[in-house]
Design brief:
Chain lengths: 317, 368
């Protein structure tokens, strides 16, 4: 994008200005992309939680965004000075474990009764759960936005003029790692295959000796853990309040763009949504930024109904 | 115990399965017609307004019921179609179209737009459709803000009065007239809904809901049938939206938000999916819960000196009730009523397993 000015025999100030502006323009663009990718990773992680559950139980957890919020608040509760004030590195695993237990308990006590019911009832059930989680978080930790005290808050790395926050880099790395691990888990390990079998045909999986109930509770725990990680990364990069769970709607767009049931799809969908948003806000007309993710979702659903990494097909008569 | 003798094939699609039922519904109708008299005597227009808004919610619930209860397509974005109906109604009225034309036209516009929007996602199954409509609901709020020139955007727009046969009906100036207008629309909607359900169209909706594959095998065209269901559902929702606008007298971008969409869905589930009664029972519950909670709050603060003002408790209680219903009474309030009635009908022969449903197991539509 650099324009070399060789046609003039002397520099004038205006050209120099132009030169400088274009340079910052590119840097600005890169900066936007990087923060967009980091945002997208959080969306991708929440979407990963949906996809995990969808892949293994065919249910859609509309409360995943609220689980993320709860994970963030649990970490805040353990780590921040005004609450328990534990070390950050102790608080995070603790929050992950607690949220995994909550999520697993929800499956074992409530969702297990819903086996074989229509997807719609599960959707409504999890929406209701989201309301309750939001209420609980608001009652325990208050409705004011709080931010997580992290050891790497404010630290940044300079790469040739581009300033990257350590939190952004951590977010991107953790998301990549988790996606890869979960992908391998589902395609390579015995438990992962059992989870897929349980969703593809519950009864047949029972007959083949898959402990379907335990497998489903396990996958809910796994998704709770992923949600807690997403919550930590989200709270480390900005303030969190009980209604942050509504972010889940954007993560839905991400999961559906990628194609429900595909782990890499969730990641890619998250990135698309995350990058589109700041770009639309920066370069598009006012109001487009909010619309962009959903407009893309509708376009994807219209032209590629199963998402980019489609796994569904209509049953033939 | 009541015994039904069916002497004719047509009795299966009669309006009322039993003459006694007709009598009860007539009594109910008479009660609703006479209700304003009571409020007039009490001079309580506030409660009358509450009853009116319950009716409006019931109409909206009927709209969603046609789609979710009858055809089995979950929509998480019905507030968006209500918004289309409401704004179409306001714009038509402001353009000088008489209410009697503007109001039905608003419903048709909502139905047409809804079908147009839903056409591409019609091929999708449960979750994707719910997601697409959810996205639509979120988008609609943004569109209302962006289309400021027409919709008033964030500042909102005031809804003109209804003018009917030379009378002007305003929600505050003459609440009794407004009540009767809403009741009239409600009755027409119920009659329309009941007729659809009795007709082959309604049965093809139910066939799609119960098994799309069997429906296709029976010669039902799923795409067309779903589109029709969407059109009817969105039209009714649009009418409800228009009435909602008249009831609120002022609408902004926040009136028809995602919470309203979700409330509509919760409402019909609590009421009982797939029944006309369900829409009304659900609307009553949704309308009553805030009142009950407010009363409980004042009662707690006066008798126990607990000034418990916990924000968000309404929604949490609502959600808890909903979870209870889905777990223990999936057929909703109407299902519970059916059980009670059957218990009395069959006394003393009612058995526990009478309404037990067949256990089904999960099979995915994904391939890999």
């Amino acid at each position: 994008m650099r324009r070399l000015c060789t046609c003039h025999y002397d520099y004038n100030i205006k050209d120099f200005q132009q030169f400088h502006d274009e340079d910052t323009y590119v840097l600005d663009f890169i900066q936007l992309i990087v923060s967009g990718i980091a945002n997208g990773c959080v969306y991708g992680l929440i979407a990963l939680g949906f996809v995990l559950i969808y892949k293994a139980t065919e249910a859609v957890n509309f409360a995943q965004g609220d689980f993320m919020m709860l994970g963030a608040f649990l970490t805040v509760g353990f780590a921040n000075q005004q609450f328990f004030g534990l070390s950050f590195w102790l608080a995070v695993p603790l929050a992950i474990v607690v949220l995994a237990l909550i999520s697993g308990a929800f499956d074992a006590t409530v969702l297990r009764r819903m086996a074989g019911e229509s997807q719609v009832s599960v959707v409504i059930l999890t929406i209701a759960l989201g309301f309750i989680l939001r209420f609980a978080a608001g009652t325990i930790w208050g409705h004011e936005p709080v931010s997580l005290e992290t050891p790497f808050a404010g630290a940044d790395v300079r790469l040739g003029g581009v300033v990257l926050g350590v939190d952004e880099i951590a977010t991107i790395l953790v998301t990549l790692l988790l996606t890869a691990l979960l992908y391998l888990f589902f395609s390579k390990t015995k438990l992962g295959l059992a989870m897929q079998a349980a969703s593809q045909n519950m009864l047949a999986a029972y007959y083949m000796g898959v402990p379907v109930k335990r497998v489903q509770t396990l996958v809910w725990m796994l998704s709770g853990a992923v949600a807690a990680v997403a919550g930590v990364l989200f709270a480390a990069r900005g303030a969190i309040d009980p209604s942050a769970g509504l972010l889940g709607i954007k993560a839905f767009a991400a999961a559906a763009i990628g194609g429900f049931g595909s782990l890499p799809g969730a990641f890619v969908g998250g990135l698309i949504v995350g990058v589109i948003e700041p770009l639309a806000a920066r370069y598009g007309p006012a109001g487009v930024a909010q619309i962009a993710p959903y407009a893309i979702l509708l376009l994807v659903l219209a032209f590629k109904p199963g998402g980019l990494f489609s796994q569904t097909q209509a049953k033939k008569v | 115990m009541r015994t039904l003798f069916k002497t004719n094939y047509d009795t299966d699609i009669d309006w009322f399965s039993h003459p006694a039922k007709l009598g009860w519904y007539l009594v109910l109708l008479a009660a609703f017609l006479a209700l304003p008299l009571y409020f007039f005597w009490q001079n309580d227009t506030y409660l009358l307004g509450e009853v009116t808004s319950v009716f409006i919610f019931a109409i909206a619930g009927l709209g969603l019921m046609m789609l979710t209860g009858q055809t089995g397509l979950a929509s998480l974005g019905h507030a968006a179609f209500m918004a289309i109906g409401c704004y179409a109604n306001v714009l038509l009225l402001n353009a000088g179209v008489p209410w009697l034309i503007a109001f039905p036209l608003a419903g048709l516009i909502a139905g047409a737009l809804g079908t147009f929007i839903a056409m591409p996602v019609m091929r999708l199954h449960g979750v994707y459709l719910a997601l697409a409509t959810l996205a639509l609901s979120v988008l609609m709020v943004d569109f209302i803000v962006l289309g400021e020139d027409f919709t008033g955007g964030v500042a909102g727009i005031s809804v003109p009065d209804i003018s009917l046969f030379g009378f002007t009906v305003n929600r505050y100036a003459n609440p009794y007239a407004f009540y009767y207008v809403v009741l009239g629309v409600c009755l027409i909607t119920v009659a329309f809904y009941r007729n659809i359900v009795r007709s082959p169209t309604g049965r093809s909706f139910a066939a799609i809901r119960d098994s799309e594959i069997s429906a296709r095998a029976m010669g039902v065209d799923p795409a067309k049938t779903k589109a029709l269901a969407f059109f009817l559902s969105c039209s009714i929702a649009g009418l409800a939206g228009a009435l909602f606008g008249h009831n609120a007298t002022y609408v902004t971008h926040e009136t028809f938000d995602i919470v309203m969409s979700i409330t509509l869905l919760l409402m019909i589930v609590i009421g009982g999916l797939g029944t006309i009664h369900g829409a009304f029972l659900g609307a009553i519950v949704v309308g009553l819960i805030p009142v009950i909670i407010a009363n409980a709050r004042t009662w707690l603060s006066t008798s126990f000196d607990i000034t418990g003002n916990i924000p968000g408790i309404e929604q949490a209680i609502f959600a808890a009730i909903l979870i209870g219903f889905i777990l223990f009474e999936p057929m909703g309030l109407y299902g519970r009523w059916m059980k009670i009635r059957t218990w009395f009908d069959l006394f003393p022969f009612y058995r526990k397993g009478l309404f037990a449903r067949q256990k089904s197991y999960l099979k995915t539509e994904r391939v890999q």
